[in-house]
Specification:
heterodimer; A: 12 helices; B: alpha+beta; Dipeptide-binding Protein, domain 1; Dipeptide-binding Protein, domain 3; 4-stranded mixed beta sheet; 15 helices; 18 strands; about 30% helix; globular
């Protein structure tokens, strides 16, 4: 019963958060300089066409009326129509969503797994050369800007070695497409996005495991004769997973920002690239739709993280 | 005997070289061109909005009634695409176009004059961008399937050249049988276009690439290439890397490196640098509605402060030459070469500012005008800012992206801005850029005599009379220091040296490419 009440409370909170995000986005985007009608019309168009665009998209109405209409449509699940594409925003975004989820999901999982393993390895050999090397590399990893790393990877692995494609998500030729082709295209963008999170997770995992290995219950396990390997893997590492899970929850929000950069550098056809281009062309419905959907994803992921916490640590309850 | 043998071998070698060269210059059918485009393509229906990346592709899918390509920079006139020929009535009010007979849409349906009428009627009724060039069209008639008649309400000399020019962007003919009775902007064929052009649509992977293949049933000779792939890039560094590593045949002009690196890139083995003169200049526009530039003495002072050679060298690596005229070398037909802006004269410039009531303060600063620009024009602006400081004009530089810059131009929220004036393909552009109240007159310049002359030039088809009008227009622009021409402009593209007939650069494509982005004349060596 408590869990149902918790779920209802969180759902209401989520809806409120998304609505606040929508209102804030609408206000900020419309306060930004730049006339979408002038941009859409292009420099060669006459004032009649500019005026007709303003009228057609309701841009000649007051900001309050525009916001009221937008929020009313949003509550009915209607994200509007893209100014530049003429298509429903939901369709435009849903076409791009799988690419972003693939990129973000792969990066999150890879970052968590490799980060945990690296952290555990450093903690296992704490104070040794292995620890110094891993810690040093992880500082370098999370100090490296995503876009810079992306360009370096392209120059190294695409231009010089010609191992991986520099951009896109699939080959031009249909006969070359498939899972292997997608994996080849994913390699560089996923790597550039993941490196930062590996560095971050190594630090967290190292601290978590090192702390857990100092706990009294670990000493007890050792005293009663459990093998060191078993103590480390079953008890030390498991206790270090909690901070990794909470870190992954936070990283999801960072990933949405990182995905914009990575998708732009690698011309990856995801939501990040779409929203970035929409900002440049002032395609308000796409920008707002993209942000609202991203905020929904973030709050859902936060909820998921809460549930994973309960599974990993039975002492925690959902209230 | 030895000499005879030597001569024979030398002759054979020479013959071999000659044959190789001749062979290399003979257009070859076949091959796939991998080219590039900058920014997301949002719709492949070319008529309803401005979409630069999409135009380059749609020009190869659709045909136009009449078209112009970069041959206009050498004085070439518009030519027919779907129109086989046309005649203009003596009173200049009726244009009759005779269409090719053997034209089919890519879905097999026959193209007729009804498609032309449907496209233009839609453009006019929906006020789509091309409508600006069809303002005086009173009626479009289709007496038969092969004839289209435009009735104009008044003489409009720029009608044909401007229609051909704008058709590069918005004037491509769409299929009546696919669009009639539908919402043009949401029609599903905007994503799987059906045209009558030299290439057929194959695939569009949003944000990644677009593929076209040759139309074997094209109403002219088929294009040389079998296939064209446009890779979509959202940054400039990666396509440059892809080009140098051989993964791209053509690096289009929007993706090229900064000017100072162009010559080095062009000098790489296997790389060809294409240069294309433009009908646009690069200039500085004053806001005539605001002080201090409402004062002609201040405008003249700014003109005298500019060193065009320095701008050309520092901003454009000498590749765009200084321009002193109210025209440019890519549009020579109506240039009045007697009209010339003065050379740099800092002493006189400072005198003029003193006379205008702007003496230097204790820091040597006379004026602090707001200068707005986009990244695209930034190199020129950075040099000009330094030059203006020499006469005590310290600009407040606002750099913004295109949408904001365009808005500020429209609302007049600036003192100075870099700009690009179009001088062709018809001199009516003087009226567009400097006529009172005209949309592209961003500086809000106004001169009644110029308005009359521009109008007179528009209302006669007589070349000499038009030339006379526009010569005087240029004199007025110079006399008023209405704006400040700074440099010429042009386009640079890079391709593998095996690519020929490149639009934007290769004169062999003039008259054959059917648009600025048309690849019909392109061919690839093996």
């Amino acid at each position: 019963m408590e869990r149902v009440a918790y779920l209802i409370r969180r759902t209401v909170e989520m809806i409120l958060v998304v609505l606040v995000v929508a209102v804030l986005n609408f206000t900020l985007i419309h306060l930004a300089p730049g006339d979408v009608a002038v941009y859409m019309a292009g420099v060669e168009a006459g004032p009649e066409y500019v005026a007709s665009i303003r009228h057609e998209y309701g841009l000649d109405l007051s900001l309050y009326v525009q916001m009221g209409r937008y929020m009313s449509r949003l509550l009915h699940g209607d994200f509007g129509r893209s100014f530049t594409r003429g298509e429903a925003v939901v369709d435009v975004i849903m076409n791009r969503m799988p690419a972003t989820l693939l990129l973000m999901g792969s990066s999150l999982i890879l970052g968590a797994v490799l980060g945990t393993l690296g952290g555990a390895l450093a903690a296992r050999h704490i104070g040794s050369k292995v620890d110094y090397w891993i810690s040093g590399l992880c500082v370098a990893a999370y100090s490296t800007p995503v876009f810079w790393l992306g360009l370096i990877l392209i120059y190294a692995f695409s231009v010089h070695l010609n191992w991986f494609p520099s951009s896109g998500m699939m080959s031009f030729l249909e006969e070359q497409r498939g899972i292997a082709d997608t994996l080849r295209h994913m390699a560089l963008p996923v790597l550039s996005l993941t490196v930062y999170f590996i560095g971050q997770n190594i630090k967290v995992a190292r601290a978590g495991v090192a702390e857990a290995m100092q706990d009294d219950f670990i000493t007890t396990f050792r005293a009663v004769g459990f093998k060191e390997r078993e103590v480390f893997l079953k008890h030390g590492l498991r206790n270090a997973l909690l901070p990794i899970v909470s870190m992954t929850g936070l990283q999801f929000t960072q990933l949405t920002a990182g995905a914009v950069l990575t998708e732009t550098v690698f011309s990856w056809p995801g939501m990040g690239q779409l929203v970035f281009q929409a900002v440049l062309s002032r395609d308000y419905p796409v920008i707002m739709g993209g942000y609202v959907l991203m905020s929904i994803m973030v709050v859902l992921f936060t909820l998921l993280v809460d549930f994973i916490y309960v599974v990993l640590d039975p002492r925690i309850e959902l209230k | 005997m030895k000499n005879v043998r030597f001569c024979f071998i030398a002759l054979l070698l020479l013959l071999d070289v000659f044959i190789s060269v001749a062979w290399a210059q003979t257009p070859r059918f076949g091959g796939t061109l991998v080219t590039s485009t900058f920014g997301n393509i949002t719709s492949l229906n070319p008529i309803w909005k401005y979409d630069q990346p999409a135009f380059m592709i749609s020009q190869n899918i659709y045909s136009t009634l009449v078209i112009s390509d970069w041959g206009i920079s050498e004085g070439a006139k518009p030519y027919g695409d779907l129109a086989k020929s046309w005649e203009i009535s003596d009173d200049g009010l009726t244009y009759t176009f005779h269409l090719y007979d053997n034209v089919y849409w890519h879905d097999g349906v026959k193209f007729t004059s009804a498609d032309v009428k449907f496209t233009y009627d839609t453009v006019i009724s929906k006020k789509y961008p091309l409508a600006s060039y069809l303002k005086l069209v009173k009626e479009i008639r289709t007496p038969d399937e092969k004839t289209v008649v435009f009735k104009l309400s008044d003489i409009n000399a720029p009608f044909l050249p401007m229609l051909a020019n704008a058709s590069n962007w918005y004037g491509q003919i769409i299929a009546k049988h696919l669009y009639e009775g539908t919402d043009i902007q949401t029609n599903p064929y905007n994503k799987k276009p059906v045209g009558t052009g030299p290439f057929k649509f194959v695939e569009w992977k949003d944000g990644q690439f677009v593929t076209l293949q040759v139309n074997e049933k094209y109403f002219r000779e088929r294009a040389y290439l079998d296939k064209i792939i446009w890779r979509v890039y959202t940054n400039k560094e990666v396509p440059q890397a892809d080009f140098t590593s051989g993964n791209l045949h053509l690096l289009m002009y929007e993706l090229i490196p900064p000017f100072h690196q162009l010559k080095a890139l062009g000098a790489r083995p296997g790389v060809k640098m294409w240069e294309q003169k433009s009908i646009y200049d690069r200039c500085l526009v004053f806001n005539h509605k605001r002080k201090p530039f409402s004062d002609i003495r201040v405008r003249e002072a700014i003109s005298l402060a500019i060193n065009r050679d320095e701008v050309s060298q520092l901003a454009w690596a000498g590749l765009w030459k200084p321009n002193y005229h109210a025209s440019c070398s890519g549009s020579p037909l109506f240039t009045n070469s007697k009209v010339r802006w003065p050379d740099q004269d800092l002493k006189r410039a400072q005198q003029l500012l003193d006379e205008a009531g702007y003496p230097p303060d204790s820091d040597g600063v006379r004026l602090k005008p707001v200068l707005i620009a986009t990244d695209y024009l930034k190199p020129m602006v950075e040099v000009i800012i330094q030059q203006l400081k020499r006469i005590g004009v310290h600009t407040k530089f606002d750099l913004s992206e295109t949408a904001t810059w365009l808005s500020r131009l429209g609302s007049g929220d600036f003192d100075l801005t870099p700009y690009y004036i179009r001088f062709g393909p018809d001199p009516d552009s003087y009226g567009e850029h400097f006529g009172t109240g005209e949309a592209r007159n961003v500086g809000k310049y106004s001169n009644a005599t110029l308005d009359e002359l521009a109008k007179a030039g528009q209302k006669t088809l007589n070349f000499s009379k038009r030339k006379e009008s526009y010569d005087k227009v240029q004199e007025i622009l110079r006399k008023d220091f209405a704006y400040l021409p700074v440099t010429e402009s042009g386009y640079f593209q890079f391709s593998t040296s095996k690519l020929h007939g490149v639009t934007f650069g290769d004169p062999t494509s003039y008259g054959k490419s059917f648009g600025w982005g048309g690849y019909r004349a392109c061919w690839l060596e093996k």
